[in-house]
Amino acid sequence: QKEVEQNSGPLSVPEGAIASLNCTYSDRVSQSFFWYRQYSGKSPELIMSIYSNGDKEDGRFTAQLNKASQYVSLLIRDSQPSDSATYLCAVNGGGADGLTFGKGTHLIIQP
Amino acid sequence: NAGVTQTPKFQVLKTGQSMTLQCAQDMNHNSMYWYRQDPGMGLRLIYYSASEGTTDKGEVPNGYNVSRLNKREFSLRLESAAPSQTSVYFCASMLAGGPGEQYFGPGTRLTVT
């Protein structure tokens, strides 16, 4: 059974600070990793993907991957109130059934 | 490009009624997926179609059927709706053989009374 674990939150971060979101996964053969952002009442939106160990930066977002520890994280720098959303971690083990999703972390950026 | 589209956006059914949720994508993706999302449960895979002509059960297939009409379209049918099927339904698509990025439609909010 593939599992992706996230702290459900809410995670409250002051505006301008760094928000750190974490995710662990159970399937060691997982190959690619994704972060989705979901605003209330909307569909998940892909914001970051990472495929190899280390860091990947895109604007204010940095994804980090450590395959040995089976750990993925997302850092959001200079957090804005518009970053308030639920963040879903997703893992692709290469099967035809696609991604395994975590239940998401609810992030609140306090003005 | 419209991406992934879903109809309807909202629907209210009475117990026992049937309906079909429609999904279409214009990204030339091979694989398509149906999920339901309930509070505290996350996204749960109902059915998927890895390629045109194939469909497979996901984690929660009971009470649902699917049809992969062609490469673009993948429909989800509720034959006899039950209150437990009250949920938000998302369709997603993915390019088979790629890294696994899925793109989601806007969702259908279904209430069964």
Main beta sheet strand tally, sense and closure of chain A: 6 strands, mixed
Structural class of chain A: mainly beta
Rg of chain B, Å, rounded: 13 Å
Distance between the termini of chain B: 36 Å
Strand content of chain A: over 45%
The averaged pLDDT of chain A comes out at 95
List segments of chain A where confidence is low: pLDDT < 50 over at least 5 consecutive residues.
none
How would you describe the overall organization of this protein?
The complex is a heterodimer of chains A (111) and B (113). Chain A is an all-beta fold. Chain A has strands at residues 4-5, 11-14, 19-25, 32-38, 45-50, 54-58, 61-66, 71-76, 85-92, 99-101, 105-110. In chain A, the strands form two sheets. In chain A, strands 2, 4, 5, 9, 10 and 11 form a six-stranded mixed sheet that branches. The model of chain A has no long low-confidence stretch (mean pLDDT 95). Chain B is mainly β and 113 residues long. Chain B has strands at 4-7, 10-13, 19-25, 31-38, 42-49, 56-57, 64-68, 74-78, 87-94, 102-104, 108-112. In chain B, the strands form two sheets. In chain B, strands 2, 4, 5, 6, 9, 10 and 11 form a seven-stranded mixed sheet that branches. The chains are: A mainly beta (111), B mainly beta (113). The interface between A and B is medium-sized, with 22 and 24 residues.
Identify the notable features of this structure and list them briefly.
heterodimer; A: 111 residues; mainly beta; 6-stranded mixed beta sheet; 5-stranded antiparallel beta sheet; 54% strand; B: 113 residues; 7-stranded mixed beta sheet; 11 strands; 0% helix
